[in-house]
C-alpha cells in the first residue's frame, strides 16, 4: 500500500521489492541512527498505548537493551528490529529510518500501486523481471 502523504511507502513488501528505487541514505553515523531508532520506538510505542515493559516483554528483549534503544544509546540487531516492528504493528523501515528517507518520487507511485495490486504469484515473477531489466540498464549506464 502507498500512503499519499509525501508518497511514503509503508508496505514492507513494496519497500523491499524496489531496492534500486528506494531513496534511502543509510550514511548517518551510528549515533544519529540510534537516536532515530529511539525516537521511532517511542513514537510507535506511545501511539499504541504500550508501556516500555509491555514492548520489551512481548519482543523478548531485556529491559536494559530496550531502554538503551529507546534512549538512542544503542542499535538493535536485525532480529530484534523485526520483533519490535511486529510488537509495535509497524515495518522495520519505519523503525529504522527517518520519514524523509522513505520518500518515493511522484512518477513512481502509480507504477508501485500497479505492482502491489498484482496477484502474489505474478508479483513474484514481475519482481524477477523488473530486477533483470534494472540490472540491464545499470550495466548499460556503466559503459
Describe this structure in words.
The chain is mostly helical. The protein has two domains: 2-23 and 103-142, no CATH class; 30-101, lambda repressor-like DNA-binding domains (434 Repressor (Amino-terminal Domain), Orthogonal Bundle). 62% of the residues lie in helices and 3% in strands. The chain has helices at 12-17, 30-47, 52-59, 63-70, 78-88, 92-96, 109-117, 120-142; strands at 2-3, 8-9. The chain has a two-stranded antiparallel ribbon. A hairpin with a 4-residue loop joins strand 1 (2-3) and strand 2. Helix 3 (52-59) packs across helix 4 and helix 3 (52-59) packs across helix 5 (78-88). The longest helix is centred in the last third of the chain and has 23 residues, at 120-142. It starts with a strand and ends with a helix. Residues 1-28 have low confidence and may be disordered.
Main CATH class of the largest domain: Mainly Alpha
Q: Helicity level, as a percent range?
A: 55-70%
Integer-rounded radius of gyration: 17 Å
- Report the order of strands and helices: EEHHHHHHHH
Give the strand order of the largest sheet, numbering strands 1, 2, ... along the chain: 1-2
- How many domain regions? 2
**CATH homologous superfamily title of the largest domain:** lambda repressor-like DNA-binding domains
Helices and strands: which structural class? mainly alpha
> What's the number of helices?
8
Largest sheet: number of strands, sense, barrel closure: 2 strands, antiparallel
**Overall pLDDT confidence:** 80
CATH topology type of the largest domain = 434 Repressor (Amino-terminal Domain)
Second rung of CATH, namely the architecture of the largest domain: Orthogonal Bundle
Low-confidence stretches: 1-28
Amino acid at each position: 500500500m502507498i500512503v499519499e502523504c509525501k508518497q511514503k511507502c509503508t508496505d514492507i513488501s513494496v519497500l523491499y521489492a524496489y531496492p534500486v528505487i528506494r531513496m534511502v541514505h543509510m550514511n548517518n553515523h551510528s549515533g544519529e541512527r540510534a537516536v532515530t531508532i529511539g525516537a521511532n520506538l517511542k513514537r510507535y510505542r506511545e501511539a499504541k498505548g504500550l508501556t516500555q515493559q509491555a514492548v520489551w516483554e512481548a519482543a523478548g528483549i531485556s529491559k536494559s537493551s530496550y531502554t538503551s534503544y529507546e534512549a538512542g544509546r544503542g542499535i538493535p540487531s536485525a532480529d530484534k528490529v523485526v520483533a519490535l516492528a511486529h510488537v509495535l504493528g509497524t515495518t522495520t523501515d519505519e523503525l529504522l529510518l527517518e520519514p524523509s528517507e522513505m520518500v518515493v518520487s511522484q512518477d513512481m507511485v502509480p507504477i508501485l500501486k500497479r505492482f502491489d495490486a498484482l496477484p502474489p504469484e505474478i508479483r513474484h515473477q514481475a519482481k524477477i523481471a523488473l530486477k533483470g531489466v534494472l540490472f540491464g540498464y545499470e550495466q548499460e549506464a556503466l559503459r
